[in-house]
Amino acid sequence: MDIFSMPAVMLPLAVNALALIITLIYGCWEDIKERAVPVVMWYPAVAIGIPMLFWFWYSVAEAGDLRMLMPLIPLILFFVVAFYLFTRFNLMGMADTKALILITVLIPCFPFVPVTGYPVFGFPPYVFLPFSVLFNAVVINLILPVVFFVMNVIRGNRAPLAYLFLGFPVQGSTIEDQFGIVMEEFTEVNGELQRKFIGVRAAIKDLVSGGKRVYTKSLKEHPEKYRKELALYRKAGTVWISYGVPFLIPITGGLISALFLGDLFGFLVRLVVS
Q: In sequence order, what are the residues at sequence separation of 6 or more whose Cβ sits closer than 8 angstroms to the Cβ of residue 267?
């Protein structure tokens, strides 16, 4: 009998998956609202996940399939180290890293097969779920600029083409309540307001090097430091900012979609090759 069709073996991972989905949905809400995820949010998922994980590996050993799943161990270690390095080199936020590490450790393979059947696009190599989660999250993240472009076109927002994919205008009077990075520069000459979009290359360079980019979160936390900028934004009426969708949202979407769709990466590769 296929191990993935055995409810007794896969039940612990299903419990972990449900616990993490609930945790991530709550984390997305907190991240959107406060741009911060409370550390205590992870504790229940860890408290549930560790005993479930022991139960899973014990059940695999009891079923005599431990050798089949042994390749998961080096994959888990590799992905955990890789996600840690992403944070170390500022390529990913701490909450995103914690989410991906917990998914990697607590749900190493697909848990819902006994209930939902095999995933739509099949399994990735070694049935390693975290790879599918990460790939799906990246795909979702790449789709977001297209969504913002369509929204800007529908709303009649005007800007250079690249910026229609990267951001949207907000009211200057409430810009500190938004989330994103200011995409325009403002100066006042003889009482006349002048504005221009920050060049895409300059914006990326500033983002990587921690340069002059103005974050709306900083405007809210340090209004005295940005008193001049806030006055100019209010005078401008509207200000373009880059969208600030937390990566935790694509990760959550990646987890949910991977559980049911499976190996989207493999499907796309096969589609291109054929």
A: 121, 122
**pTM of whole model > 0.90?**
no
Length in residues, the chain: 274
Q: 270: number of CA atoms within 13 Å, CB side?
A: 8
pLDDT digits (tens, 9 = 90+) for 129-173: 999 999 999 999 889 889 999 999 999 999 889 889 988 999 999
Q: What tens digit of pLDDT does each residue of 242-255 get? A: 877 788 999 999 99
Per DSSP, 215 falls in state: B
Q: How far is CA 44 from CA 21, 23, 122, in A?
A: 12, 8, 31
Beta strands in 64-191 (DSSP E): 167-171, 180-182, 184-189
Sign of CA dihedral 35, 39, 42, 44: negative
Q: Which residues neighbour 243 within 8 Å (Cβ) at sequence distance 6 or greater?
A: 144, 148, 166, 167, 168, 180
Instruction: Please say whether the beta carbons of 132 and 264 come within 8 A.
Output: yes
